[in-house]
Amino acid sequence: MADQQQASSSFKVYARWRPLTAIESSTAGFERNTIESETNSSISISSHVNTNRTRTWKSDASFTKVFPETAANSDIFAGVVAPTVPRVMQGATCNLFAYGHSGSGKTHTIIGYNYDDSNQLGLCLGAARRLFEALDQVRTQPVEETREREDLGVAVRLYEVRGKHAYDLLNNNIECYIREGPDGQTHVRGQTETLEDGKVRVRPIVARPCWCYEEVQEAVRTGLKGRTTGSSSIHDESSRTHAVIELEVVTRRLMDAREEVTARESELVPVGKRATDVYIEEQSKSIIKTPEGKYIPNPGHPVNQAIIDAAEAEKAEYENRLRMAEDSVKACFDSPQNACLGGKFIFVDLAGSEYFDAATSTSTSRPKQTTQEQRQGRQINTDLFALKEVIRAKASKQSRIPFRASPLTMILRSHFLAEEREGQSAMILTLSPEEEQFVATLNTLKYGNLVGEAGRR
């Protein structure tokens, strides 16, 4: 079943060519050209390797901007991410996806490999640094005499989506379950923990509060050490998962209030279970079975309504405590001083798209994959196809958005819907000019062209 929502904002698609590596530089790569129009750009590529005729393809004018191979990460940040920072500082959500085959530069673009070079800093860390610069300006603004200045920071969530589960990279790679709750929202939660006095806690994805840029950098560096790798059609150490990095503007009061909600939920579980058990026990004792097989009231044990009412009253008390904790979270957003509170950047480093088409390379020496990795490939195929369909459905303002089509789109549902409130979403296609990767690059461009055309409607 799909969700009924209306889209209100466009989806921008950018393209980024990576340079040839030292091993690849013996050739010039296949021919590629950018054709700029008044508003958007198109790309044409051409190759004649391993074929008797030249293979040519040209996109529509579906790309907001095409970055050449000489562009540094700082150039990508300035063109794609920097313009959205004011939106996040007004509490909006902005989503950014990196799409391309393994080895095309997705992780380099989103995360970066050199944390000390500001020009090559990944987009997520560049965004964190810019957010703290903006938060410093907020801290210097005067506040009402009746209000206490609150500490502003950035909470980091870092997890990967693998198969039908998520894995919390800031919590020892704990397996988390993707479920839709009775409220219609998607919840990503870890395994159930049994605490003292029968309390049961199910923690959400860990949000690590950071109060300076260096703490964000360390959190990302630590979390990414646990990211899963495996063989792909491109190289043996390619990421086979979708990595999601969330940066949310928070205060200490908000983080404490959310922790209080988790604690109150833990207390409610055993009390609610006890109320249910009391009701079932009393109802069971109040009836007996006759020799004829009929159930009749038990004259020796009528229902003790007082015990049931007492258990329900205790349950209601703990439910009220939970509501009060939830109200405290809502109250954190009431201050006009903190319009930025809850603003989010969502960066998604998608798994390699070579699985989207089996014929991803003109090379005949592809590593043999295990049965498990083949299953992973099929799931990646499903995720990437579902993501495209969600984007297209939203852009065309369809009444039913197929968020439930894959675990990835279920997780992203709340971010996509939050983005509709003054936010923005974009995708960066990472492209390889290497001759043997012509087909993989062509597939990436076709995917991006479909998404870009839909986003322009």
From TrEMBL:
Q: What Gene Ontology terms describe where this protein resides (cellular component)?
A: kinesin complex; microtubule
Keyword terms, alphabetized: ATP-binding, Microtubule, Motor protein, Nucleotide-binding
Keyword hit for Zinc-finger? no
Q: Which SUPFAM superfamilies match?
A: P-loop containing nucleoside triphosphate hydrolases
The residues that the entry says bind ATP are: 100-107
Q: What GO terms describe the biological role, i.e. biological process, of this protein?
A: microtubule-based movement
Q: Which InterPro entries does this chain map to?
A: Kinesin-like_fam, Kinesin_motor_CS, Kinesin_motor_dom, Kinesin_motor_dom_sf, P-loop_NTPase
Q: Which GO terms describe its molecular function?
A: ATP binding; ATP hydrolysis activity; microtubule binding; microtubule motor activity
An example of a Pfam family matching this protein is Kinesin
Which organism is the protein's source? Aaosphaeria arxii CBS 175.79
* Family statement drawn from the similarity comment of this UniProt entry: Belongs to the TRAFAC class myosin-kinesin ATPase superfamily. Kinesin family.
Name assigned to this protein: Kinesin-like protein
Q: Can you give the residue ranges of the Kinesin motor domain? A: 10-454
What SMART domains has UniProt attached to this entry? KISc (SM00129)
